[in-house]
Amino acid sequence: MSTLAPSAPHDLTQVRTLRSRLMPYALLAPAVLVTLFIVFFPMVQAVVTSFYDLVLWKPNASRFVGFGNYIKLLHDPVFWISLGHTAIWIGLTVPLQMGLGLVAALLLNREFPWRGLARALVIIPWALPSVVIALMWRWIYDPTTGVLNDILLYLSIIHSTVPWLADPHLALYAVIATLTWQGFPFFAVMILAGLQGIPQSQYEAASIDGASTWRQFVHITLPGIAPVLATAGLLRIIWVANSMDVIFVMTGGGPGYATHTLPLYAFIKARQNLDFGYGTAIAVTFTILLGAIVAVYIVRTMREVER
Amino acid sequence: MNKPSTLRRILTTDIPVVFIIMLAMGPFVWMILTSLTPTAQLSASGVSLSPAGWSMDNYIRLLEQTSFLGNMLDSLIIAAGTVVLGLAVSITAAYALSRFRFPGRKLVMLQFLLVNMFPIVLLILPLFILMRKIGLLDTHLALILANSTVAIPFAVWMLRSYIGAIPRSLDEAAMIDGCSRLQALRRVVLPLAMPGIISTGIYIFITAWNEYLYALTLGGRNVRPVTVAIQTLIGEYQIEWGLLAAGGVVGALPATLLFLLVQRRLIGGLTQGAVKG
């Protein structure tokens, strides 16, 4: 990639065209080499590891088992539980984030004196570290001293304190609520950008024709922001599926397996049992499942870029 | 005459917006209030809502009795290192992708886009094995490299669109005047792309500062960034929420302030896609 030195400078112009043809590759080389080393090489390693029985604390570790880990996976009830949770996790979090984000964006798109300030403040959750968010919500959800129970008791919505994160039936939904809170500003900001791209004249024409606000929303606003919704939605599905730091800090996957998602299960297997072979097999399976959504996103983005 | 419409605006816009802002800010404000309430009072009567009950007690304990300042330094080294490495290799790559048409260009762009979508869990396990093999475990460099897995593809895509917006005729004019390609890049394109480079750098800094799972897995003893250190503030017998909240506020502050500083310009770039988080 870096053979820029002219080998036989008989013909100067030929050397020059060769140089200019190699130029982009030379400029790309550092970035490509670094990503090969820190992304693609480890990834190949991961696929290889998934065919081995590799437990880090066992003395003569590393035994080739072929598809052994994957067959084990199919018979592992926790894998299926985690897969189900991952589906609920994505299926609830992304639409909730999008809905809340849409409401926020529509409001922030209206005219009011402190609009700039409001737009800046609404993004705060997005900039906070996941660990801080997770700990903050653990404090809010705390069964004895948490503020959420206090508020709900005061409003008499509940009659006794609820152990949000310790109840296996509630824990997953409590974490989903936290992730919704963390992610809705992203949608709000993206949708806001989409809203600003809709020409005002369309609304004026519609109101002259006597279209109601609702009809204007359905026929002008929604089509106008549809591309943004699709792009942001795809990005979020991928991101939410991958995200496990908030669950890990809030519940560690518990109580029991109540908040296990696939990436978290892989991480816990490797981190706590040091079972790297099985852990990477789960991770690889998860990546393949996610691959379909990633493919749709990539086709869309590449098409847009080349336009 | 203006009154009814103002009232209407307040009812239909201002009040709902206040609700949204309260929803977005509420938990963070609650954490700030918690951090200002001394621990003894926190367990006796809960979070203090009035300034009379506030004190800097938790913050003083945080700075005096824990290694939090050292952890901030670790985070700073890692985040700054990621920015330097990420930008250094990405600027030339982005320039090449935006200015040249060559065989394999699409493949390279696809590769950088794809990398951003990889589940972190797929990379974290082999990176741990790799870092252990080459003896980088628990060093700043290990975390800088790990964070670069996110930073480099992101930076290449962001900078490609910033540089793409600079007219080609400018570097062509410089080259007619006798500049080489690299001189044109350095003297013409780089200064013009500087706002984009700075906001990309700041975004990398924020994500690297906030990163948790790599820090937990590849760091830990000698190198312990803020995100990992905050968890160690949980007390031995009962959770010290006051101290924890103070750590959370201090740990979140640098990234949040930087974010507010550049949010307007960042959002323009972010809506172009290819972004994690």
UniProtKB/TrEMBL annotation, chain A:
Entry GO terms, CC: plasma membrane
Cell membrane keyword on record: yes
UniProt membrane topology term: Multi-pass membrane protein
InterPro entries, per the entry: MetI-like, MetI-like_sf
Protein family membership: Belongs to the binding-protein-dependent transport system permease family.
Transmembrane segments: 25-48, 87-108, 120-140, 146-165, 172-197, 217-239, 246-268, 280-299
Full protein name: Multiple sugar transport system permease protein
First-listed, main subcellular location of the protein, grouped into a coarse class: membrane
Domain ABC transmembrane type-1: from-to ranges: 83-299
Automatic annotation (TrEMBL), chain B:
Example GO biological process: transmembrane transport
Pfam families documented for this protein: BPD_transp_1
Gene3D superfamilies referenced in this protein's UniProt entry, alphabetically: MetI-like
Positions of the ABC transmembrane type-1 domain: 72-262
Transmembrane annotation, as ranges: 12-33, 76-97, 109-129, 141-159, 188-209, 241-262
Membrane topology, as annotated: Multi-pass membrane protein
GO cellular component: plasma membrane
Localization per Swiss-Prot or TrEMBL: Cell membrane
Keyword Cytoplasm listed: no
Keywords of this entry: Cell membrane, Membrane, Sugar transport, Transmembrane, Transmembrane helix, Transport
Keyword Membrane on entry: yes
InterPro entries for the chain: BP-dep_ABC_trans_perm, MetI-like, MetI-like_sf
Similarity-based family: Belongs to the binding-protein-dependent transport system permease family.
Protein name: Multiple sugar transport system permease protein
Organism expressing this protein natively: Phyllobacterium trifolii
